[in-house]
Amino acid sequence: MSGIILFDGVCNFCDQSVQFILKRDEKHYFQFASLQSDAGKKLIKDFDVPTDIDSMILIENNKYYSKSSAALRICKNLKGLWRLLYGFLIVPKPIRDFAYGIIAKNRYKWFGKRDSCMLPPPEVRDRFL
C-alpha cells in the first residue's frame, strides 16, 4: 500500500514540500504527480477530485484528502517527530483548513512560481508518475 501526492508543479513552495517529503519518506511510501501532468489529471478524474481545490492532494486507500487533512496524513508517514503532527487531525477541519488556506492563497506571492514543472532528480525519478 502507498499514497500518491498530487502537487502544483509550478509552485516553488509545493516543489520544496515535495523535496521535504522525499527526504523524510524512508519507506518510499509516497509516489508523486504534478497536478498539471497527464497522470495527475487522470487521477483527479478517476477520484472525482473537484478541479477548483487549491491544495496538495493525497490519494490513499482509494480516497482523496485535500488541504490540512492531506498535509497531516502525509506527516503520519514521515520519519522523526513530523509524524506527531498527525495528531492535529483532532482540531476541527474548518480551523485547520483556514490556516492552510492562507498559505495556499499566497504561495505564489510569497514563494514564487516557475514556468514549468520541475524535473525530478534521477535517484527519485521512479517515484514520480
UniProtKB/TrEMBL annotation:
GO molecular function (one): protein-disulfide reductase activity
Query: Domain of life here?
Result: Bacteria
Under the heading InterPro entries, the entry gives: DCC1-like (IPR007263), DCC_oxidoreductase (IPR052927)
Q: Which Pfam families match?
A: DCC1-like
Q: What is this protein called?
A: Predicted thiol-disulfide oxidoreductase YuxK, DCC family
Q: What organism is this sequence from?
A: Oceanobacillus limi
